[in-house]
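Category: protein sequence paired with discrete backbone structure
Discipline: computational structural biology
Format: plain text, a pair of labelled lines
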Amino acid sequence: MASRPAAPGGPPTPSPAKKGRPAVSKTKSKLDETSDSGRGKTPSSMPPKPTREKVATMAKKGAANVPIDLSALKGLEVGDEGKIYGNDGKALGYVVEGDPNDLIGQVVGDNGEILDEDGDPIGRVEVLSEERGKGTSQDEQHGNIPIDFGSLQGLKVSEGGEIKSSAGEVVAKVVEGDLGDLVGYALNEQGEVIDDDGDAVGRVEIVPQAGKFTSAAQDDGNIEESGTEKKVKHNAEKLTESAADVPTSDSGPEAKTPALPNLSKLAGLTVNKKGEVADDSGNVLGKLEEGKLEEIVGKEVNERGLVLDDDGNIVGKVTAVEVAAHAEDEGSNLPPLPTLEGLTCNKQGKIVNADGKPVGELVEGNARAIWKYGAQLDSQGQFWDNKGRVIGKAKTIEQEEEEEEDTPFAEFEGLVVGKDGWVEDENGNKVGQIVQGDSKKLVGRAVDPDGDILDKRGNVVGHAERYEEPEPEPEKEDLSTLKGLVPNKQGNVMGPDGIPIGRVIEGNSKELAGKKIDENGRIWNDSGRPIGQCELIPEDERETKTEGPFAGLEGLVVVNDGLVEDENGNIVGKVAEGDAKKLRGRAVDEDGDIVDKYGNVKGHVEPYEPPEEEVQEEDLSPLAGKTINKAGNIVDESGVAIGRLVSGDPKKLSGRKVDDKGQIWGDKGQVIGKVELVPEAERHKPEGPFSGFTSLTVGKDSVVLDSSCQIVGRVVEGDTKKLMGRPVDEDGDIIDKAGSVIGKAERWEQEQRKRDINPMSGRKVNKEGEVRDADGNLIGKLTEGNLHNLVGKSIDDNGYVVDNDGNKIGECTLLENIPEISPEQLEAEKQDKQERELAKKMCAIVQQTLDKVGAVCKMIKEHTERADRTPKDELDEEELVRNVKPLIEEGGSHLQECNGALRALDPDGQIAAKAKSKSAKREASPEEHQLADLLKELTSTVATTIDNARKRIADMPHAKKKLNPLWALLSEPLFQIITAVGLLLTGVLGLVGRLLNGLGLGGLVNGLLGGLGINKLLGELGLGSVTDALNLGGDKGK
């Protein structure tokens, strides 16, 4: 049962138990809540109000009153009677909230809290005071009588939060809870105010009666003191009085009267950002003990150590800080405490300076936790966390005076130089090594404490230094016993006896669960990277007892007939020792022991499961002699499945017979399968001839059609005319609307005529329009369609060329079906091939020219545009002429080269003669299309450049005069190129004309040619057909 602090003058009082959970006060005083929030804690996780013991202890310590350090209890487990024991077996703390019996084995966390698996607080502990550890309380020492709340049970809270006796005398007062909400509620025997639901909503304390306690109503000022102030002041005064009454002789030779903290020296000083109260010299005289730091910073402290807001309300409390003496006596070499400021603590609790020399040591707090946190000491030798709490205290240690000179061999006697340059002591131990001098010549000479080796005259002839044998490396722990084992989700590695023998020390236990450990204790992932490390649990830390047979089962109890049931009513065990009748209703632990309330074992239980009821064997004689089909079924004569396979492979057991017990026997006399009867309700009649078909109807010619109009049967009974369009069921019956059978059909399929498949089926058309077989033999040719669009297309079974959707886009014919080609056709094919080759060569020539001339035209355009943008008064026309003229000449040169190359393709004029006699209306080849596109680009580039340049220099007289005559250097060779192409390939010019007209450049090019008079000249020479072929929109009559 949980305990809570008692009211002043009494011991800790047990809290009322409320069916499975400890009763914790739900309300707190305003100052308590302020103090809680100032420390960064929620009210539920704050420690209870100080007891009289703690108040007296705090008063006795005076200025050394600092928060209790709970870090020493962190990581320890709760033991018997709710006590927390250290490694030496001494009790260090005790449970103050929660049921001690339920918390046994739980680990103490931060701030003394005990958390469950979900991180929720289930209990709290405090450090065990010295008096409590000895088994005595201050209440007993002072003779105080414990408070009896039982006499208050049933009394109700009246107005003002007072509880009055039947005589009207005030006997208690509310100290926790909202006074307005508690009026009318009654008290329980623990001094708590209980609401209608039985929940604790407040708490009271006994009001001290006259003659028993010193009055707590004394007030040193005009400010009303809070309940906490009164209790602290009252207890401090009473403790001082009782201490003053003790004779000096009884106190011992050095006993001193306890002194109250001198808080008057803090009056008028303010609280800084660290929660400290410092004087003008920066000396810390006090620190904040209660209150919210952010609300108190900058506020003054009064002579009683209280911090008040502008309305006079108490918002915090300050306690005096004990200033340690910097030196104990004249001969002491103890450094002052401020010299430790800024230093940190190591794992051993030592405070080391920059030179690595210990200058202090930890006296309060967890050394490892403070080292890991990285906290630094302040000028008062205190470690603080980021929440403003003191987590440790340190003191300086006496410093030894360093010797002026280093004497490495001071502690040795009889040192001499031995073999190999070693220095040996009188026992022959190697303690040094020669570093200067000839070691062979120095053998046998003495070595002084400074390491010097002297000759007979006192001259230094060598020097030695200390040598210490290196410590042997610690033996590596043998982790081979963990090899092949796996950790569980809790990070434990279980041994063969079910007891943890290892544990995960690196990595996430949940992610490492189930992964194997190697001989070095490492765990690797699939990529070959180490993801975890395990260690052996020391023998003295291992569990020696395995889990009992009933581990994991809750609520085990003995019931009738000596059986044991769990909390769900399942039978899991049976009484093996003891009187089952007398043990009925008793609990069973995980080891199977039945223990009485005194701990005596009254009986023992062993695991037990009730036998299953025998099931009557099914009569499988109807299956005897039947055979298994491939589906694993046993079918009777009518085709109905009366049995089915329940074990064995249907494919392997197909065709084997079944005996009268439903067993299937192998060739070697062993049972290889078993069957069972199919219940009557699950048996199905045999499938009809049309099973699997849907929407069957009677069609023309007495045939039965399925949903896709395929013939699947025929009518064998009934009037076919009357049965037309009627449905047919899976049994082949034709039924009318009334359900009467008026006809019968049977399965029947028409004979399928063999389809002829073209040998070219699946082949593709190549670039030559040919179709070849797998061996590359020519088997057919494209006879219909545009070869340019049909290259690579597939041929279907009928010899048609089809697209991806199966549409006919051409036709191929087998070679044997193609008529012989006439000489004229052969000649025409040869001519076409020559023209395609010619067009390819022309494309290469024109493409090269286009690249060169395009760059020249671009530069002409840039120069003319720049001149056009330049203001007339800044324009230098002569410079424009100097820039453009060479470009025009260069472009004309490239065009002349192109013209010469084209004409070189037909030096004797034979190709031109053949082209002239050939019709220009034929279909152009892909090569001719490409050539036409290049000519279009070249023509449009040159013509556009000339036209734009003329327009831009129209207002430039000098440039116009110099440059306009030069444009013919570009236009004349251009038309010569067009003429050369037209003479060799007449069909190309029509394509060029259409492309130029499509760009809107037809009129421009035609005007350019007309301006040069070239079209008239060609007409006179009989070459007018060339300009006509271009069809650029010019007037033929001109």
